[in-house]
Each structure stands twice: as C-alpha cells, then as structure tokens.
C-alpha cells in the first residue's frame, strides 16, 4: 500500500490528542473524548491495524515473509516498551520514592511493593502499569496478525470476523475477569487482574481484526462507490451526531449515557464500538479532503514517526507527574505552559530526527 499522507496526518492528530489527555494539565478535560464516546486510543489501534493489513495484503501468499515482517515489527514495538519500562522503574520510580510524589507512587504501586516480581512479569507483558499498557497490546496483536491473515486466506474473512466478534462478545460478558478468577489458585501467576493493564485484549482484538480486514480489502480492491456508500455515509453522520450530542449532555440524546457499561472504553463496549465505526466512516471519507485543504505538515511529520513520537510522549508524561507535589495540587498556568512546550517540542525533534534517519537509510 503506498504511503498516504492524510493517514499520517490523522495519526499525528491522534498523537496530539493522546498527549494532551495524558499530560497533567487542564486541557485533558477537553482532549479525552472530543468527538463523542471515542478516545484517540481506538483510532490509533484501528489505523495501525489498517496500515498493517494494507501493507501485508499480498504477503499472505508468502507466509515466511509475512511472519518475518510482522515478527520484526512486533519486536521493535517490544523494544520500545522495554525501554519505557526500564525508564519508569529506575528514573521515575526513584523520583517518586525520594521526592514523595503520590502520582508516581500510585502509578508504580505494585513495583514499589514487589520490584523483582514487577520487573520480571512486565517483561513478559503480564504486569502493565498505567500509561504503559498500550504497547503490550500492540505487541500481542502484531504477533497474532499472521494467524489472522493466513486464516483469512484459508477460510475467508467472514469466518475470521465472526470468530473475532464472538471473542469480543465473550469479553463483554467478563471473559478476562473469569480467566483471572480461574487462574487465581495457580501459585505461578505473579499478578492480579488490576495489574494487567486497563485494555482488555479479548475485546480490543476485534477492533484490530476489523482494521486488518479493512486495510487488506482496501489494498486488494477499490472501495465501492455509489448509492450504498452514500447511505452508509448518511447513517454515519446521524449516529456520530447522536453520540456527539450525548457526549455533551444534550437532551434527549443524553439517555445514551444512562448505561455506562455499554460505553466502557477498556472493554470496547457495544455503543462505544458503534460510535467509533461511525466516526471511522466519516474520517475515511473526509480525511483526504481535509488534508488537501489544510496541508497539516506538522501532523504528517508526527504521524510518520508514530512509534518514537509515542514513546517520547510517554517519557515526558511520566516526568511531568513528578511536578505534582505531595499535596497533589494541580499545576499552575506557568507550569502547564512549560510542560506543553517542552513535550511538543521534544516530540517534534524526535519526528525530525526520525525523518532524517529514514532519508539516509532509504
């Protein structure tokens, strides 16, 4: 699949929203879910899967090449995750302990209680502290992707999507918690469910499989046009607007929020999934036009270096927690401005460095 700058721009926008959400500033109240009951995480996971599916759409005829490519990508993400873990456990953990920073100590509570167990279990992706739980999800999903693509080649996408959807449905009924309860008596299991990360792999794999399928189909065939797509687009506008009005508590749409379990982020609950799919349709149609209109070069730069930029944003987010004192008082305006400037300047520098390195290596 040829590189599409509008998708890089979209990834850049998602990185900006994610960064604003994770930084301890007042802006996170506005950046968390600005377009409905959907965060940047859903878009980032789906878009990553879309690109993986598109770039490997024709590789399933050569399984060895497919396995090698995705294994290499998964190990690269894993290397970034290990680097972030070591930084968190050494630099951030020490700062939180010595300077008595509750925000950091709460973040790494299990590590401070059982450092060796936390370190070893984190390396095998069992222990996932807050903020450090999305890259493990990527690693597992990337390792599973060859199975998905090869199964689709042999059995067809319909069966793969149905199986993935059934696992997602089971996740809504408590599959993850049931597994941890069942394994609770096993002495070798070093952690509990609360230390395993917020994202439910059994639910989020469905979003990933949908993304891989969409990217694969888009790379192999042209998207259908005509009346059906117009009907789909109109429905997406209606659904997206309903959830947007509900998000900002406009009557009578606020009724959609009366059952929060149906909007849960971590299990990718049903209404949340519907909201995301509607926005995905709108973004698919609108992003090329918006890109050609705005030409957001900075967002393209950030999105084209998504993994290193994501990693450095986590480093700066972790460091910014050290500014929250023992009274947990919020940052003042000057501190917030400094945090924002340093964070985004660092992200841009990393993106520029990545582009130069890519240009040199080809």
Automatic annotation (TrEMBL):
Domain of life: Bacteria
Protein name, entry field: OpgC domain-containing protein
Organism classification: Bacteria, Pseudomonadati, Myxococcota, Myxococcia, Myxococcales
Organism: Myxococcus llanfairpwllgwyngyllgogerychwyrndrobwllllantysiliogogogochensis
PANTHER family the UniProt entry points to: BLL4819 PROTEIN
Acetylation is among the record's keywords: no
InterPro entries assigned to the protein according to its UniProt record, in alphabetical order: UCP028704_OpgC
UniProt keywords, alphabetically: Membrane, Transmembrane, Transmembrane helix
Transmembrane stretches, start-end: 39-57, 78-99, 119-144, 156-175, 195-216, 228-246, 266-286, 298-324, 336-352
Keyword presence, 4Fe-4S: no
Pfam families, A to Z: OpgC_C
């Amino acid at each position: 699949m040829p590189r599409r700058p509008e998708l890089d721009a979209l990834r850049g926008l998602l990185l900006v929203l994610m960064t604003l959400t994770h930084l301890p500033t007042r802006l996170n109240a506005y950046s968390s879910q600005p377009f409905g009951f959907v965060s940047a995480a859903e878009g980032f996971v789906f878009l990553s899967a879309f690109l993986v599916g598109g770039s490997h759409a024709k590789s399933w005829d050569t399984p060895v090449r497919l396995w090698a490519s995705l294994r290499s990508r998964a190990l690269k993400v894993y290397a970034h995750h290990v680097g972030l873990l070591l930084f968190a456990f050494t630099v951030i953990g020490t700062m939180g302990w010595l300077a008595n920073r509750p925000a950091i100590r709460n973040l790494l509570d299990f590590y401070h209680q059982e450092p060796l167990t936390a370190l070893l279990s984190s390396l095998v992706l069992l222990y996932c502290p807050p903020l450090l739980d999305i890259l493990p999800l990527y690693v597992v999903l990337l390792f599973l992707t060859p199975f998905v693509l090869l199964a689709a080649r042999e059995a067809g996408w319909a069966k793969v999507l149905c199986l993935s959807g059934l696992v997602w449905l089971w996740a809504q009924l408590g599959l993850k918690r049931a597994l941890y309860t069942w394994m609770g008596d096993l002495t070798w299991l070093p952690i509990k469910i609360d230390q395993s990360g917020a994202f439910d792999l059994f639910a989020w794999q469905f979003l990933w499989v949908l993304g891989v399928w969409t990217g694969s189909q888009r790379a192999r065939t042209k998207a259908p046009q005509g009346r059906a797509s117009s009907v789909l687009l109109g429905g997406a506008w209606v659904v997206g607007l309903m959830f947007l009005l509900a998000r900002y508590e406009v009557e009578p749409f606020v009724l959609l929020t009366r059952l929060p379990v149906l909007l849960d982020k971590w299990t990718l609950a049903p209404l949340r999934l519907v909201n995301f799919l509607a926005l995905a349709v709108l973004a698919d149609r609108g992003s090329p036009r918006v890109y050609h209109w705005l030409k957001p070069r900075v967002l393209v730069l950030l999105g084209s270096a998504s993994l290193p930029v994501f990693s450095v944003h986590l480093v700066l987010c972790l460091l910014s927690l050290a500014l929250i004192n023992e009274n947990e008082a919020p940052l003042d305006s000057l501190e917030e401005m400094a945090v924002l400037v340093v964070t985004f300047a660092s992200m841009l520098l990393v993106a520029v460095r990545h582009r130069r390195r890519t240009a040199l290596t080809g």
